[in-house]
C-alpha cells in the first residue's frame, strides 16, 4: 500500500474496495502477459462496476471530496451558461438540454432556475450519468426544485435516439476519458503500460501498437518542433468516436464542452515533456496514478484541436473556442453578478470571490477552455463574442 502519512486515510470499507480493485487489476495484468496498457488501467480504475472511482460510492465532489467543479464553486456559472442555452433554444424554437456527467446536480438545478427566469425552459432536461451514487445525489438535488421544474428532468443510461434538437453540455467530462500514455525515444514510439512488481504497480514500456504509433508520429510532426528523447504525454483514442456518436444523434443545436486543456501546439509543446496525467485525492494533486486504485481520480488535459477535428470530421461546425473567463464574460457575467448583488457586504464579498475563482488566469479562468460544436445554428453565439480563439486551434 502507498504511504498515507501525509494524506487523509481512507476508512476500512474504502480500503477494502481499493484492495479488491487492485486484485482485479493484477488479474488483468497477468492475463495480458504482464503488461496492461495504461488506457485499460485507467478505464478500470475509474469505471470498473462497483469498484472504480466513478462507479463506487465514494464522496467525490465538494469540500469533502476530491475536487470541486465550477457549478459547485458558484451559481453564477450556471446562470451564465443558461444565457447561452437560452439563445440556442430560442433560435431552434425550443428543444431539450442533455448534460453529461452532472456531478452533484448543481448545474442542472441552477440552470433550470435560470432558464425559467429567462422564459426559455427546455422541453426536457436529460442527464446521462454513469455513476450510481452521483445519480442519487442529482435526484436528491432535483427533488428540491419546484415540481414544474423537477418534472422536466429525466435520467438516461445511453444517448437519446437520433433527432435530438437543443443543447448538449459536458463540463469536465473529456478529462475523464481513458488515455494512452506514450514515450518518444527520438526515433520511435513506446506505449506505456502497467506491470506488477514487488507487490505494487509500476510503469512498463513496449513498442507502440501500429495505430498508436501512427497517431503519435502525426502529433510529433504537427507540433513543428522536435520533442526531446524521453518525451512523455497522452493521446485520447476515445475522443473522436465519442464526438462522432454525439454528432450522429444531433439533428440541430449546440454541443458545449468545458474542460482544462490546450490547443494541440501548446499541449504537445516540447517543454511539456512529462505530459498532463494527474491523480486527485481529497483535493491533493498526485503524480502517482497508481495511488489507491478506485479511491483517487485520474485525469488528463484535453487536446482541443482534436475535439475540433473530431467535430468537423463528424459533419459539425466549430462555432467557437475561448477561455472560460471570456466565455462567461460574453454570456453576461457582469449582468448576472449585478442581478445577484446583495446588500449584505459579506454576501457581496463572497460573490466577488466566486467571480475571481471562475475568471482569474491563475484560477479557472484560463486553465479551463470552452468549445462549441454544432449543426443548424445561424447566429454567432454570445459566449464566444468577447474573444473567439478558433485561430489557435
Automatic annotation (TrEMBL):
Gene Ontology terms: biological process: methylation
Gene Ontology MF annotations: protein-arginine omega-N symmetric methyltransferase activity
Pfam families associated with the record: Methyltransf_28
The UniProt record lists the keyword DNA damage: no
Signal peptide annotation: none
UniProt keywords, alphabetically: Methyltransferase, Transferase
UniProt keyword Transferase present: yes
PANTHER family (UniProt xref): PROTEIN ARGININE METHYLTRANSFERASE NDUFAF7, MITOCHONDRIAL (PTHR12049:SF7)
Protein name: SAM-dependent methyltransferase
Amino acid at each position: 500500500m502507498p504511504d498515507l502519512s501525509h494524506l487523509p486515510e481512507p476508512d476500512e470499507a474504502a480500503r477494502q474496495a481499493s484492495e479488491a480493485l487492485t486484485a482485479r487489476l493484477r488479474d488483468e495484468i497477468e492475463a495480458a502477459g504482464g503488461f496492461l496498457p495504461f488506457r485499460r488501467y485507467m478505464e478500470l480504475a475509474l469505471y470498473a462496476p462497483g469498484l472504480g472511482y466513478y462507479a463506487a460510492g465514494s464522496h467525490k465532489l465538494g469540500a469533502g471530496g476530491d475536487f470541486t467543479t465550477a457549478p459547485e464553486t458558484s451559481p453564477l456559472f450556471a446562470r451564465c451558461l443558461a444565457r447561452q442555452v437560452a439563445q440556442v433554444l430560442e433560435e431552434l424554437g425550443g428543444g431539450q438540454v442533455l448534460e453529461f456527467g452532472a456531478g452533484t446536480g448543481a448545474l442542472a438545478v441552477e440552470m433550470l432556475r435560470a432558464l425559467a427566469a429567462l422564459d426559455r425552459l427546455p422541453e426536457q432536461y436529460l442527464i446521462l450519468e454513469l455513476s450510481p451514487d452521483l445519480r442519487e445525489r442529482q435526484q436528491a438535488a432535483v427533488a428540491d426544485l419546484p415540481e414544474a421544474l423537477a418534472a422536466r428532468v429525466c435520467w438516461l443510461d445511453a444517448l437519446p435516439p437520433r433527432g435530438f434538437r437543443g443543447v448538449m453540455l459536458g463540463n469536465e467530462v473529456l478529462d475523464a476519458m481513458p488515455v494512452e500514455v506514450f514515450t518518444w525515444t527520438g526515433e520511435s514510439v513506446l506505449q506505456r503500460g502497467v506491470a506488477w512488481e514487488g507487490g505494487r504497480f509500476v510503469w512498463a514500456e513496449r513498442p507502440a501498437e501500429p495505430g498508436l504509433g501512427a497517431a503519435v508520429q502525426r502529433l510529433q510532426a504537427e507540433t513543428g518542433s522536435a520533442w526531446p528523447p524521453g518525451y512523455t504525454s497522452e493521446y485520447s483514442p476515445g475522443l473522436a468516436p465519442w464526438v462522432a456518436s454525439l454528432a450522429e444523434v444531433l439533428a440541430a443545436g449546440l454541443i458545449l464542452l468545458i474542460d482544462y486543456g490546450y490547443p494541440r501546439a501548446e499541449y504537445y509543446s516540447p517543454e511539456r515533456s512529462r505530459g498532463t496525467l494527474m491523480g486527485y485525492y481529497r483535493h491533493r494533486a498526485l503524480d502517482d496514478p497508481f495511488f489507491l486504485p478506485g479511491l483517487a481520480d485520474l485525469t488528463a488535459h484535453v487536446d482541443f484541436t482534436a475535439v475540433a477535428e473530431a467535430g468537423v470530421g463528424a459533419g459539425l461546425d466549430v462555432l467557437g473556442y475561448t477561455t472560460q473567463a471570456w466565455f462567461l464574460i460574453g454570456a453576461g457575467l457582469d449582468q448576472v453578478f449585478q442581478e445577484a448583488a446583495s446588500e449584505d457586504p459579506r454576501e457581496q464579498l463572497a460573490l466577488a470571490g466566486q467571480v475571481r475563482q471562475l475568471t482569474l488566469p491563475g484560477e479557472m479562468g484560463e486553465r479551463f477552455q470552452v468549445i462549441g460544436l454544432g449543426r443548424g445554428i445561424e447566429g454567432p453565439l454570445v459566449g464566444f463574442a468577447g474573444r473567439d480563439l478558433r485561430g489557435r486551434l
